[in-house]
Known about the structure:
The complex is a heterodimer.
Chain A: H1 8-22, H2 32-77, H3 85-92, H4 98-101
Chain B: H1 13-20, H2 24-46, H3 52-66, H4 76-95, H5 106-117, H6 125-139, H7 145-155, H8 161-168, H9 172-199
Amino acid sequence: MYPTHRSNDERLDALFRAYRASCPDRDAGANFMPELWKRIEARQTFTFSFRRMANAFVTAGLALTVVLGVYMAIPQRSPAYPVSYLQALADNNTLETPEIVGPVRLDLTDPGR
Amino acid sequence: MPAIKWCGMLVDFEVIKRARAGDSPAFNEIVLAYRKRILGTITRLIARQEDVEDVAQEVFLRLYFSLDQLRTAEVFEPWLYRLTVNAAYDYLRKQRRRQEYRMSDLSEQQVMMADAAAGGKVEHEEQQQKKVRESVDSLLGAVSEADRILLMLKEVEGLSLKELEKIYKVNENALKVRLFRARQRVLKAFGASGKREGTG
Protein backbone atom coordinates (compact mmCIF):
# COMPACT_ATOMS: atom_id res chain seq x y z
CA MET A 1 0.00 0.00 0.00
CA TYR A 2 1.01 3.65 -0.28
CA PRO A 3 2.80 5.19 2.64
CA THR A 4 -0.02 7.46 3.80
CA HIS A 5 2.17 10.07 5.46
CA ARG A 6 3.60 11.20 2.14
CA SER A 7 1.91 13.89 0.14
CA ASN A 8 0.79 13.38 -3.43
CA ASP A 9 3.58 15.74 -4.53
CA GLU A 10 6.24 13.57 -2.96
CA ARG A 11 4.71 10.40 -4.29
CA LEU A 12 4.54 11.87 -7.77
CA ASP A 13 8.22 12.83 -7.55
CA ALA A 14 9.01 9.27 -6.46
CA LEU A 15 7.03 7.96 -9.41
CA PHE A 16 8.99 10.18 -11.80
CA ARG A 17 12.25 8.97 -10.25
CA ALA A 18 11.14 5.36 -10.63
CA TYR A 19 10.21 6.12 -14.20
CA ARG A 20 13.62 7.64 -14.85
CA ALA A 21 15.27 4.54 -13.41
CA SER A 22 13.10 2.27 -15.53
CA CYS A 23 14.16 4.02 -18.75
CA PRO A 24 17.96 4.09 -18.76
CA ASP A 25 19.92 5.29 -21.76
CA ARG A 26 20.19 2.56 -24.35
CA ASP A 27 22.08 2.03 -27.53
CA ALA A 28 20.59 1.43 -30.93
CA GLY A 29 20.26 -1.87 -32.71
CA ALA A 30 22.60 -3.00 -35.47
CA ASN A 31 20.23 -1.79 -38.18
CA PHE A 32 19.95 1.73 -36.88
CA MET A 33 22.53 3.35 -39.18
CA PRO A 34 21.66 1.45 -42.38
CA GLU A 35 17.97 2.19 -41.84
CA LEU A 36 18.72 5.84 -41.19
CA TRP A 37 20.71 6.18 -44.41
CA LYS A 38 17.95 4.41 -46.31
CA ARG A 39 15.48 7.00 -45.06
CA ILE A 40 17.83 9.85 -45.90
CA GLU A 41 18.32 8.57 -49.43
CA ALA A 42 14.58 7.99 -49.88
CA ARG A 43 13.90 11.59 -48.78
CA GLN A 44 16.62 12.89 -51.08
CA THR A 45 15.17 10.99 -54.03
CA PHE A 46 11.72 12.33 -53.27
CA THR A 47 13.03 15.89 -52.94
CA PHE A 48 14.97 15.55 -56.17
CA SER A 49 11.95 14.21 -58.08
CA PHE A 50 9.76 16.92 -56.61
CA ARG A 51 12.23 19.61 -57.68
CA ARG A 52 12.43 18.20 -61.18
CA MET A 53 8.67 18.09 -61.42
CA ALA A 54 8.35 21.62 -60.08
CA ASN A 55 10.97 22.83 -62.60
CA ALA A 56 9.10 21.13 -65.41
CA PHE A 57 5.84 22.78 -64.33
CA VAL A 58 7.47 26.21 -64.15
CA THR A 59 9.02 25.78 -67.59
CA ALA A 60 5.73 24.59 -69.07
CA GLY A 61 3.93 27.51 -67.43
CA LEU A 62 6.38 30.01 -68.88
CA ALA A 63 6.13 28.48 -72.34
CA LEU A 64 2.33 28.59 -72.17
CA THR A 65 2.45 32.23 -71.10
CA VAL A 66 4.68 33.12 -74.06
CA VAL A 67 2.47 31.21 -76.49
CA LEU A 68 -0.70 32.83 -75.14
CA GLY A 69 0.96 36.25 -75.27
CA VAL A 70 1.86 35.79 -78.92
CA TYR A 71 -1.58 34.45 -79.69
CA MET A 72 -3.25 37.44 -78.07
CA ALA A 73 -0.95 39.88 -79.82
CA ILE A 74 -1.47 38.52 -83.34
CA PRO A 75 -5.20 39.37 -83.77
CA GLN A 76 -4.57 43.06 -82.95
CA ARG A 77 -2.22 43.38 -85.90
CA SER A 78 -4.49 41.40 -88.20
CA PRO A 79 -6.09 43.30 -91.14
CA ALA A 80 -9.31 41.39 -90.54
CA TYR A 81 -10.24 43.98 -87.87
CA PRO A 82 -9.32 47.34 -89.38
CA VAL A 83 -12.13 49.34 -87.80
CA SER A 84 -13.29 50.05 -84.31
CA TYR A 85 -15.61 47.75 -82.44
CA LEU A 86 -18.57 50.11 -82.76
CA GLN A 87 -18.11 50.47 -86.49
CA ALA A 88 -17.85 46.75 -86.94
CA LEU A 89 -20.99 46.28 -84.87
CA ALA A 90 -22.86 48.87 -86.89
CA ASP A 91 -21.77 47.29 -90.16
CA ASN A 92 -22.98 43.91 -89.05
CA ASN A 93 -26.39 45.10 -87.88
CA THR A 94 -27.51 47.62 -90.51
CA LEU A 95 -30.20 45.39 -91.95
CA GLU A 96 -31.58 43.99 -88.71
CA THR A 97 -31.63 47.15 -86.64
CA PRO A 98 -31.19 50.18 -88.87
CA GLU A 99 -32.95 52.52 -86.43
CA ILE A 100 -30.43 51.77 -83.72
CA VAL A 101 -27.20 51.94 -85.57
CA GLY A 102 -28.14 54.30 -88.37
CA PRO A 103 -27.13 57.94 -88.22
CA VAL A 104 -29.52 60.27 -86.51
CA ARG A 105 -31.03 62.82 -88.84
CA LEU A 106 -32.32 66.01 -87.39
CA ASP A 107 -34.90 67.92 -89.36
CA LEU A 108 -34.13 71.56 -88.55
CA THR A 109 -36.70 73.05 -90.88
CA ASP A 110 -39.73 74.48 -89.21
CA PRO A 111 -42.79 72.48 -90.42
CA GLY A 112 -45.09 75.48 -89.65
CA ARG A 113 -43.43 77.72 -92.24
CA MET B 1 19.30 8.83 -9.64
CA PRO B 2 20.79 12.07 -10.95
CA ALA B 3 19.01 13.55 -13.89
CA ILE B 4 20.76 13.68 -17.22
CA LYS B 5 22.05 17.06 -18.26
CA TRP B 6 22.70 18.00 -21.82
CA CYS B 7 25.97 19.74 -21.42
CA GLY B 8 29.21 19.54 -23.29
CA MET B 9 29.41 19.04 -27.00
CA LEU B 10 30.14 15.45 -27.95
CA VAL B 11 31.59 16.47 -31.32
CA ASP B 12 33.69 19.37 -32.55
CA PHE B 13 32.00 22.08 -34.49
CA GLU B 14 34.41 21.26 -37.31
CA VAL B 15 32.67 17.91 -37.66
CA ILE B 16 29.30 19.66 -37.85
CA LYS B 17 30.68 22.02 -40.48
CA ARG B 18 31.88 19.08 -42.55
CA ALA B 19 28.54 17.31 -42.19
CA ARG B 20 26.82 20.50 -43.27
CA ALA B 21 28.94 20.48 -46.41
CA GLY B 22 27.63 17.01 -47.23
CA ASP B 23 30.39 14.88 -45.71
CA SER B 24 28.68 11.57 -44.86
CA PRO B 25 31.39 10.24 -42.49
CA ALA B 26 31.11 13.47 -40.49
CA PHE B 27 27.36 13.05 -40.22
CA ASN B 28 27.88 9.44 -39.13
CA GLU B 29 30.22 10.71 -36.44
CA ILE B 30 27.53 13.05 -35.12
CA VAL B 31 24.92 10.29 -35.08
CA LEU B 32 27.26 7.87 -33.32
CA ALA B 33 28.13 10.49 -30.71
CA TYR B 34 24.56 11.51 -29.93
CA ARG B 35 22.37 8.53 -30.65
CA LYS B 36 22.56 6.97 -27.19
CA ARG B 37 21.57 10.24 -25.57
CA ILE B 38 18.78 10.84 -28.07
CA LEU B 39 17.47 7.29 -27.74
CA GLY B 40 17.41 7.63 -23.95
CA THR B 41 15.51 10.90 -24.09
CA ILE B 42 13.00 9.57 -26.60
CA THR B 43 12.50 6.42 -24.55
CA ARG B 44 11.49 8.58 -21.60
CA LEU B 45 9.40 10.97 -23.65
CA ILE B 46 7.25 8.48 -25.51
CA ALA B 47 7.37 5.50 -23.14
CA ARG B 48 6.98 2.98 -25.94
CA GLN B 49 10.11 0.98 -26.44
CA GLU B 50 9.12 -0.50 -29.78
CA ASP B 51 8.95 2.89 -31.52
CA VAL B 52 11.98 4.56 -29.98
CA GLU B 53 14.42 3.80 -32.80
CA ASP B 54 11.94 4.94 -35.41
CA VAL B 55 11.50 8.32 -33.71
CA ALA B 56 15.26 8.64 -33.19
CA GLN B 57 15.83 8.05 -36.89
CA GLU B 58 13.31 10.75 -37.62
CA VAL B 59 15.31 13.12 -35.39
CA PHE B 60 18.54 12.43 -37.25
CA LEU B 61 16.76 12.64 -40.57
CA ARG B 62 15.52 16.13 -39.67
CA LEU B 63 19.01 16.96 -38.45
CA TYR B 64 20.52 15.93 -41.76
CA PHE B 65 18.18 18.10 -43.79
CA SER B 66 18.38 21.13 -41.53
CA LEU B 67 22.10 21.24 -40.75
CA ASP B 68 22.55 24.14 -43.14
CA GLN B 69 20.39 26.32 -40.89
CA LEU B 70 22.80 25.94 -37.98
CA ARG B 71 24.97 29.01 -37.51
CA THR B 72 26.96 28.55 -34.30
CA ALA B 73 28.21 25.63 -32.25
CA GLU B 74 26.63 26.93 -29.04
CA VAL B 75 23.12 26.40 -30.28
CA PHE B 76 23.71 22.89 -31.59
CA GLU B 77 22.59 20.95 -28.53
CA PRO B 78 19.46 22.97 -27.67
CA TRP B 79 18.62 22.79 -31.33
CA LEU B 80 19.11 19.01 -31.45
CA TYR B 81 16.97 18.77 -28.32
CA ARG B 82 14.29 20.83 -30.04
CA LEU B 83 14.33 18.44 -32.99
CA THR B 84 13.98 15.56 -30.53
CA VAL B 85 11.10 17.23 -28.72
CA ASN B 86 9.31 18.00 -31.99
CA ALA B 87 9.71 14.45 -33.30
CA ALA B 88 8.42 13.01 -30.02
CA TYR B 89 5.53 15.47 -30.06
CA ASP B 90 4.61 14.52 -33.63
CA TYR B 91 4.75 10.86 -32.70
CA LEU B 92 2.54 11.30 -29.64
CA ARG B 93 0.06 13.38 -31.57
CA LYS B 94 -0.20 10.69 -34.22
CA GLN B 95 -0.61 7.96 -31.68
CA ARG B 96 -3.39 9.49 -29.65
CA ARG B 97 -3.65 6.18 -27.97
CA ARG B 98 -3.49 7.79 -24.61
CA GLN B 99 -7.22 8.37 -24.94
CA GLU B 100 -7.56 4.67 -24.47
CA TYR B 101 -5.54 4.60 -21.31
CA ARG B 102 -7.13 2.70 -18.53
CA MET B 103 -7.11 4.56 -15.26
CA SER B 104 -8.54 1.48 -13.57
CA ASP B 105 -5.24 -0.27 -14.15
CA LEU B 106 -3.34 2.56 -12.58
CA SER B 107 -4.02 1.70 -8.98
CA GLU B 108 -2.52 -1.72 -9.24
CA GLN B 109 0.51 -0.36 -11.04
CA GLN B 110 0.95 2.35 -8.47
CA VAL B 111 0.74 -0.14 -5.68
CA MET B 112 3.48 -2.19 -7.29
CA MET B 113 5.56 0.91 -7.88
CA ALA B 114 5.09 2.08 -4.33
CA ASP B 115 6.10 -1.32 -3.06
CA ALA B 116 9.25 -1.11 -5.13
CA ALA B 117 9.94 2.41 -3.88
CA ALA B 118 9.46 1.23 -0.33
CA GLY B 119 12.26 -1.21 -0.83
CA GLY B 120 10.15 -4.35 -1.10
CA LYS B 121 11.80 -7.29 -2.71
CA VAL B 122 11.16 -7.22 -6.45
CA GLU B 123 11.07 -10.55 -8.12
CA HIS B 124 10.32 -9.51 -11.66
CA GLU B 125 12.24 -6.33 -12.14
CA GLU B 126 11.58 -6.05 -15.83
CA GLN B 127 7.85 -6.45 -15.29
CA GLN B 128 7.93 -3.82 -12.59
CA GLN B 129 9.72 -1.35 -14.81
CA LYS B 130 7.21 -1.94 -17.53
CA LYS B 131 4.41 -1.30 -15.08
CA VAL B 132 6.03 1.93 -13.91
CA ARG B 133 6.37 3.11 -17.50
CA GLU B 134 2.75 2.29 -18.23
CA SER B 135 1.68 3.95 -15.04
CA VAL B 136 3.44 7.23 -15.86
CA ASP B 137 2.25 7.01 -19.45
CA SER B 138 -1.32 6.70 -18.19
CA LEU B 139 -0.96 9.56 -15.71
CA LEU B 140 0.40 11.86 -18.38
CA GLY B 141 -2.76 11.25 -20.34
CA ALA B 142 -4.20 14.01 -18.16
CA VAL B 143 -2.24 16.65 -20.05
CA SER B 144 -1.69 17.53 -23.69
CA GLU B 145 1.18 16.02 -25.68
CA ALA B 146 3.07 19.31 -25.56
CA ASP B 147 2.68 19.63 -21.78
CA ARG B 148 3.56 15.99 -21.31
CA ILE B 149 6.87 16.54 -23.06
CA LEU B 150 7.55 19.74 -21.15
CA LEU B 151 6.83 18.01 -17.85
CA MET B 152 9.04 15.06 -18.74
CA LEU B 153 11.92 17.32 -19.73
CA LYS B 154 11.68 19.09 -16.38
CA GLU B 155 10.80 16.27 -14.00
CA VAL B 156 12.48 13.27 -15.57
CA GLU B 157 15.26 14.63 -17.79
CA GLY B 158 16.03 17.20 -15.10
CA LEU B 159 16.47 20.17 -17.41
CA SER B 160 16.59 23.57 -15.77
CA LEU B 161 14.23 26.39 -16.67
CA LYS B 162 17.13 28.15 -18.40
CA GLU B 163 17.74 25.12 -20.60
CA LEU B 164 14.04 24.80 -21.35
CA GLU B 165 13.96 28.47 -22.23
CA LYS B 166 16.66 27.87 -24.85
CA ILE B 167 14.84 24.89 -26.29
CA TYR B 168 11.37 26.39 -26.39
CA LYS B 169 12.48 29.97 -26.95
CA VAL B 170 9.82 31.28 -24.62
CA ASN B 171 9.84 33.38 -21.50
CA GLU B 172 10.83 31.63 -18.25
CA ASN B 173 7.70 32.82 -16.46
CA ALA B 174 5.47 31.43 -19.18
CA LEU B 175 7.26 28.10 -18.82
CA LYS B 176 6.78 28.16 -15.05
CA VAL B 177 3.06 28.74 -15.43
CA ARG B 178 2.72 25.96 -18.00
CA LEU B 179 4.72 23.55 -15.89
CA PHE B 180 2.72 24.38 -12.77
CA ARG B 181 -0.59 23.81 -14.52
CA ALA B 182 0.57 20.60 -16.13
CA ARG B 183 1.83 19.25 -12.83
CA GLN B 184 -1.41 20.19 -11.10
CA ARG B 185 -3.38 18.25 -13.69
CA VAL B 186 -1.17 15.22 -13.31
CA LEU B 187 -1.40 15.48 -9.53
CA LYS B 188 -5.16 15.59 -9.76
CA ALA B 189 -5.18 12.44 -11.87
CA PHE B 190 -2.71 10.86 -9.48
CA GLY B 191 -4.88 11.73 -6.48
CA ALA B 192 -8.01 10.48 -8.21
CA SER B 193 -6.41 7.14 -8.98
CA GLY B 194 -5.26 6.90 -5.36
CA LYS B 195 -8.81 7.53 -4.15
CA ARG B 196 -10.13 4.87 -6.49
CA GLU B 197 -7.61 2.51 -5.03
CA GLY B 198 -8.80 3.45 -1.55
CA THR B 199 -12.43 2.79 -2.32
CA GLY B 200 -11.89 -0.12 -4.68
